[in-house]
Amino acid sequence: MVPKQSVTSFNTRQMRIDENRFSPIERVLLTHDGTVTRMLEALTGHPITVTILARHIRGETLYRRVALESPVDPDPLVWATSEVDLQSLDPQYEAMLREQEIGIGAMFWNERFETFRELMDFDIIATQEQFPSFITANTSELLKRTYSIHHKKASIMNIVEYFPKDKIETFIGE
């Protein structure tokens, strides 16, 4: 019989995540490669809406700031920023992101747009002084993850998501 070994971290595509630093639900949210909106709907049991906080274009790049919200919680569950290379998108997808209140994952899902998500980084932002200025969270820490979305082997956008750490554990059992 092989003795059980204590695992203190595991590898997520060349990155190690310390299981003593993050709870199981935090590890799932930080390392999954699916649509965060759909995951939040599964965890909370409620529809999640995307609210566009800011959107502008500079050159051939679309910049967006969004909040993902539940109808039963007055505070966002996630904030996100995205940088989208407009030259890499078909005009219909570009128009959707420019004009509609739609999440990127929902757009890809609805249109059956094939993508690959590559996790680049994850961390904890431990003080409110380090929070991005657009985040109005009543929380002491944020979990942050950064990833790229690829289509046809090319990076088409970069996304950074911020999760209020003290709210995440409430997802379990709702």
Task: Give the secondary structure arrangement, pairings included.
Blueprint: E1 9-12, E2 15-18, H1 24-31, H2 36-44, E3 49-58, E4 61-69, E5 78-85, H3 91-99, H4 104-111, E6 116-125, E7 142-151, E8 154-164, H5 165-168
Give the number of DSSP strands.
Answer: 8
What summary fits the major beta sheet? Answer: 6 strands, antiparallel
List unreliable stretches of 5+ residues: 1-14
Name the helix and strand elements from N-terminus to C-terminus, one letter apiece. EEHHEEEHHEEEH
Number of helices: 5
Helical residue percent?
Answer: 10-25%
Look at the structure and name the CATH superfamily. Chorismate lyase-like
Averaging pLDDT over every residue, what do you get?
77
Q: From the helix content, strand content and strand pairing, which structural class follows?
A: alpha+beta
Q: How do the strands line up in the largest sheet?
A: 3-4-5-8-7-6
Radius of gyration: 17 Å
| Strand coverage percent | 35-45%
| CATH fold-level assignment | Chorismate lyase
Going by CATH, the architecture would be: 3-Layer(aba) Sandwich
End-to-end gap: 40 Å
Number of domains: 1
- CATH class category: Alpha Beta
Question: Which overall shape is indicated by the principal axes computed on the Cα atoms?
Answer: globular
